[in-house]
Amino acid sequence: MNCFSKAERLLKRSEFLALASNAIKKEYTQHFIVVSGSSEYTHPRVGITVSKKVGNAVCRNRVKRVVREFFRNNKELFVTADYNIIARSGAGQMKHSDLCQELANAIYKIGQQHCS
């Protein structure tokens, strides 16, 4: 089953702050910032940050839903690390396929940087 369990999430504010202060790689795209850092876990973990600059609650929740779905369907792209995917303004107006393509490119670049 393709799920997004609690073990695969950044849950506490302290985890987000630790990732921000110990970030190994950051990838900037037009609509997202992807921050990655080392993890003591044996699987990738993802946190999603969507501020009010992105849109109203409906818009922000849609972006979070699509990012979670992207993670569930593309876990093989993520190397073992912690990730914070931060949505920037304009992300709420993107088509589903464009959003997924932009995230895939960013995660691929981060994966290449981790390997080198």
Characterize the structure shown.
With 116 residues, this protein is α+β, with helices and mostly antiparallel strands. The chain is built from 3 helices and 4 strands; from the N terminus they run H-E-E-E-H-E-H. A 4-stranded mixed sheet has the order 1-2-4-3. Helix 2 links the parallel strand 3 and strand 4. The longest helix has 20 residues. The relative contact order is 0.23.
Question: What's the gist of this structure?
Answer:
With 116 residues, this protein is α+β, with helices and mostly antiparallel strands. Helix content is 40%, strand content 21%.
Uncertain spans: none
| Helical run tally | 3
Strand arrangement across the biggest beta sheet? 1-2-4-3
Number of strands: 4
Over the alpha carbons, how many angstroms does the gyration radius reach? 13 Å
N-to-C span: 32 Å
Briefly note the structural class of the backbone: alpha+beta
H/E element sequence? HEEEHEH
Helix content: 25-40%
Mean pLDDT: 91
Major sheet attributes: 4 strands, mixed
Taken as a percent bin, the fraction of beta residues is: 15-25%
Q: Which term fits the overall shape? A: globular
Topology record:
Blueprint: H1 13-21, E1 23-28, E2 32-37, E3 45-50, H2 57-73, E4 82-87, H3 96-115
Parallel strand pairs: 3-4
Antiparallel strand pairs: 1-2, 2-4
Keywords:
single chain, 116 residues, alpha+beta, 40% helix
